[in-house]
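Fold it.
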Amino acid sequence: MRLRYLLTAVVLAATSAAAQQTPPPTALTIYNQDFAVARTTVDLDLRPGLNEITTTQVTSQLEPDSVVLRDPSASNTAKPTFRILEQNYDAGVVTQQWLLEKYEGKTLNFQIAGSSFVDGHFVPGPTVAGKIIRAGGQQFGSPQFGYQQTQPLVEVDGQILFQLPGTPLFPPSTDGLLLKPTLRWQINAEKPQKLAAELAYITGGLSWEANYNVVAPENANNTTEEKADILGWITIHNQSGTEFPQARIKLMAGDVAKIVPQDFGRNRMLIAMGASQMVQVDANVTQKAFDDFHLYDLNRTVALRDGEIKQVQFIEAAGVTLKRSYIYDGAQEGLQPYTGGNVNQEQEYGANLGTSKVHIVEEFKNSEANHLGIPLPAGRVRLYRRDSDTQMEFVGESAINHTPTEDTVKITTGSAFDIKGTRRQSDFHIDQRARFVDETFEIKLTNQKTQPVTVNVLEHLYRGNNWQLTQKSTDYTKLDSHTIQFPIPIPAKGESTLTYTVHYTW
């Protein structure tokens, strides 16, 4: 137990010494695709000739071939003041498994019972000696039949155990003990110099997303237009395995092309097993167009701990006009445009697909006139509504894409309880000789609300490209080459029926 205590002391001493050296601030630009560009400085004190420089101010998910170390004061045409001969990156931070592999074939003590403190004195538990034949943890198998890991093999008193007999106690001094991910350079300098070199690299394990909370007032009269409040939050996740005590954070919104290394997902999964904590920060977030994307700046230095989830409010808008509509898309599931060259002539095509659900859609215009007008990053929109007792109730959520100014945000919050629809094919006629198909549908809508509503009925004319409505019970709007929309008013506690006939030719 004394050996284990000494090892712990070595680790704590190294950690304490590192903590006394405040790392330089790090600038982070975090992208939607779960990666970031990190920029910091490394103090170089170079002698003439070969120098070895190390830094631990990097993450465990760094892309080694993305690293750039340069003199920021050097111009593009000037001769570099130093030359990097070699770069090495080691993310193999010391773990119990790493030490077990290092001590394969050797004998260690294993603590087999708990330790305790008595009158302020540390009292170790009993131990047993065991020879590590195999550390275990190696993967074997195949993608077809699955992978497994080898078990450890330990010899204790002439017997083989397929598990560790207790907690392994390692010697206090271990060659190659690595507490943090480390970058090492071999640098050649022509003359002595001191400078703060710029270090930039791409890393995984950092991500961000936008979340929006829409708070609507009580709507006792069930009106379709009302005023709501909108709060927008940026949520930042740090699963990089590294803490950033001082970070200047920017967020890039948009779909930036990025090839993701194969080990990013594995590293992120392992690190994500740790605990997370939620932190909320007030900040004056600004945004600007950058290239073909949008860049959001937190405009302050924050501490971003490993495993932390940090939230920053970036939108607070009141009096936003919110409009509600109802959509009935009776044949929305699985119906695709026919690509056979003429017309699909099967009577059942699109006839038996259907749902009774009428979707609720809330929408608002992202414009200055509507108290918004800022590009909205993709994310999740949650809708809350106040009850008569002023308590907020959750009434649905939806994901939105990146939304520029002057665009409309639409949120599908669920299906209406009291409004239902049915759809059936009431007639079908085909004339091979004259090369046409006539098809008639009947859509019936019921409303059990105490107020009248209007439901927009979507119909998909997917049998062929050449179509014409020869009969309709109400007017429609053509949304695209295969989709039309009928606005159908339904009285309170009543029903309405829509019929139409479409004529296909080829």
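The domain at 318-505 is CATH 2.60.40.290 (Immunoglobulin-like).
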